[in-house]
């Protein structure tokens, strides 16, 4: 598994996740699709999935455009967060795969928005896992900091790390 950071807007990132053996890729929060596609093309990656953390424009704002640019791409988003362009709704505990070696666990992290999803991504056994949290830790959200920490502590039952 290889992860590329794609700078977007003034202070944001999208992330390109690549299965090294198949060159299939997923992108987290493709707010600027053209930049994401440039990164994918420069690494010979065939984009298959979009992983959207939440519905705000600085994360989901590029979903419709990337669907136009990459026909057939699947756009994942929360079952309850009304993510623009979403083709596949996910909830806590859902599992997806990418290529031959990447597995994605969806974690409901309702701290910034009620439907916020974080993605725990694993590759081959010897590779370090990664978690993409979007704005989970953003201090402005739908829950108080104490409530948010309670929700995050519940995730330990899903954690394999």
From TrEMBL:
Enzyme Commission number: 3.1.2.6
Q: Which domain of life is it from?
A: Eukaryota
Molecular function (Gene Ontology), one example: metal ion binding
Q: In which pathway does it act?
A: Secondary metabolite metabolism; methylglyoxal degradation; (R)-lactate from methylglyoxal: step 2/2
Swiss-Prot/TrEMBL catalytic activity = an S-(2-hydroxyacyl)glutathione + H2O = a 2-hydroxy carboxylate + glutathione + H(+)
Question: PANTHER family of this UniProt entry?
Answer: BETA LACTAMASE DOMAIN, TENZING NORGAY, ISOFORM C
The family assignment reads: Belongs to the metallo-beta-lactamase superfamily. Glyoxalase II family.
Output this protein's name.
hydroxyacylglutathione hydrolase
Q: From which organism does this entry originate? A: Glycine max (Soybean)
Organism phylogeny: Eukaryota, Viridiplantae, Streptophyta, Embryophyta, Tracheophyta
